[in-house]
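Posting this for the archive.
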Amino acid sequence: MGTNPMTTAETDVVFAQEFAQILAELLAVDGVGHDENFFDDLGADSLLMAQFCSRVRKQPGLPKVSMKDIYGHSTVNALATALGAAPAAVVPAAFVAVLPPAPAPSGDHLLDLQALLGEHYRPLEPLAEHSVATTSVLVPEPAPRAAVAAPGRLRVVLCGLIQLAVLIAPLFGVAAAGIVGFRWIAAGHGAAAEYLRTVGFLAAGVATLFVLPILAKWLLIGRWKPGEIRLWSAAYLRFWLVRSLIQRNPLLHLMMGSPLFGVYLRLLGAKVGPGAVILSRNIPVCTDLISIGAGAIIRKDVVLTGYHAQPGVIRTGVVHIGAGAVVGDNSVLDINTEIGAGGQLGHASSLHPGQVVPAGESWHGSPAQAGGAPVVLPDACRVGRARRFRFVLGQLLTMVFFIAPLGLGIAIGLSVATQRLIGLQSWGKQSLAAPAFYRDAALASAVVFFGLVLVGLPLLFLVARLLSLPVRAERTYPMYGLRHTLQRAVVRLTNLKFYAQMFGDSSAIVGYLGRLGYRLKPYAQTGTNFGLSFQHETPFTVHIGTGTVVADGLSVLNTDFSATSFRVRQVHIGRNNFLGNKVPYPAEGRTGDNCLLATKVAVPVDGEIRHGVGLLGSPAFEIPRTVARDTGLAVNQSAVRLGLRRKNRHNAITIALFLTVRWLYVFGIVIYADWAGQLYRASSWRGLGLANLGLVAGSLAYWLSVERSVTFLSTWAPQGVSIYDRRFWRHERFWKVPTQQYLQMFNGTPLKPWLWRALGARVGRGVFDDGLAVVEKSFATIGSGAVFNVSSVVQSHSQEDGAFKSDFIRIGAGCTVGPGAFVHYGVQMGPDSTLAADSFLMKGEEIPDGAYWGGNPARELPQPDWQSGHSVGVGE
């Protein structure tokens, strides 16, 4: 005997009653009216909202609620009605990979995704009553993926030992080459002969750096193929070695944005059309699976590798970017994705596996969806092959005849100056056992280090301003000419990380940025106006209004690029704004005064100018500007003045510690240099190689010790503290004094999780880390077998206006965090759950066991079908 289903109205009432009961429990009140404003009930607190969503998801029979659902509906009744009307099996089209029919072959279409993927290509067809243009489509139930057997501990240890040997081998190779090279240079007669020999020696080094990754790729891999590589296997070792040679090659980073970089990718097997402009510093790895059409533009900080990691395997796949396509800044292209000819992917957006941007369309969001304003391009200029050839030739000649000899000369000059300050006439003349040597070495290293810091500042300001004079804002110039060369030099020079880290999170950062070129006056000093990391394409056209506070990771997009031209733009960020972490701000950003730009937000570039609102997500939607709990942490003006004076004193000591720690490291290098010089006199390349190994091991031990010595300063503050609270200042000191740059050399090895443990994180066995950044290590718990992809972030804090909050993060066993994904504080990921590429998992969220989440902000998505045959993904 059947039962009568409830009507839609009855369902809405049931949902509203359940929602109201959960709200009342969270707020510890007797009851919640169905028509009361939702933001008032929750105090506009996203942490409470996340707790509400989590409780709703755990109740059987209730629809799944996301943060965006709550922000979009102001009352309990409105939310219940919206969710009650939605079919249970329907999900937003933005989270579904709908592949259109394969386009007709043309010269622009370098790659047929269906042909290359073969049996792996599975388009999802919408049912008849739903069109691709509607807001939802039905998704078929995916086939379960067979579990990958965990590798034996012996295999992991053996793989790690081989990787360690590979990391150590270049230290001895550099020692041997250095002895041979310096002997040959010294044998020259006269300054001219020595210079020419120096150029020849350095040219050989540049050629080696150029050729070695290409040879390794073709000898060890052959051609990359779509498929799987089992972690810690022989195939994985080959993959890791080739990836390391490509991504850590300093020569490739100097070639970014040059036609030479496209040529290099072709030599590695990629299909790169003429005139393609590649500005991203994340170098593709599985190059045979990457195709970039003629005239395509890939902006900086785009993640485009051709692979991603999952539990037990590296999965490789195709990425196609059509002719004339544009990929915006801070975007992520996962495997098996495509942008058609003339298509565009906006800033802070992503394509998840299987997604295709049709030819000529503009998509944005994470994961991307149709619509949104196109990325602005300057007018085209005439740029021929001859101009590109001259630019490349000039790059190579400048590198070999000027930059490399100058760098070597500066290093030798500093070494000689330090040597003379110590009082040595030649290496080894004074014993390392003499106490006076260490006294003189400390004095000499201090003079050199602090002298460079002090002289470098005015020199930086002067040179950057002179180089920028020929390039005027809002004027279009052709690529690969003198002005383009000067603009590239300004970008590299003014984005030095040392001074940003030195002055960031202190009152001094305002003066530094003002002298660098930012327009900040008049400004309201908070003592924390800018964080430790930010970047721009020129500092001279950045205008930031009074009272605006910027957290870490701001990227000002103030230069437009086409395949043949560039144009510097004016950027205006309004007054009394707060910008969260990893915000790319374009020149056409449509925000005004008193806005909150949340972490990883895609700043809107169309529509009306927003004032007095918060913006969250990609694509962005409006949220309340101020959180009630943060307002309670604010202090009055007299308390601000007193707190600012105390904070300035505290920050001055922090800057002194920052400099002292780095000077001590330089002092250690001076001691090493004397030891290495004695070994060089003995002509022992083995001894010099051991000295290089000692320098690397000593550096690792030193920076590990530095960070552990300041870990106790980190502040657990789930309810928040004011930025004028001493606990927050101590946490800023914890951020500033250490460094994490050395950790990246161990990506993809079993040593990286061990280093996280040494720094205080709770990390289980078998964790695979391909490029994770953990900010507060002691606040993170990571389960066994978890997988972290390139550019993933685990951050246990947030700062909003005058409030600072931090809490623990728990990531369960077997979890996967995708490329470019960001995990915020107070989060729990259940065992075997997945966070997709470029996702933002907001504070307080809980992902259920085995669930697949993604998006910005993250929510539950359909499980993808990962069936892909048995290919190991490398050449056979």
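The longest helix spans residues 637-681. The two ends are 62 Å apart (CA to CA).
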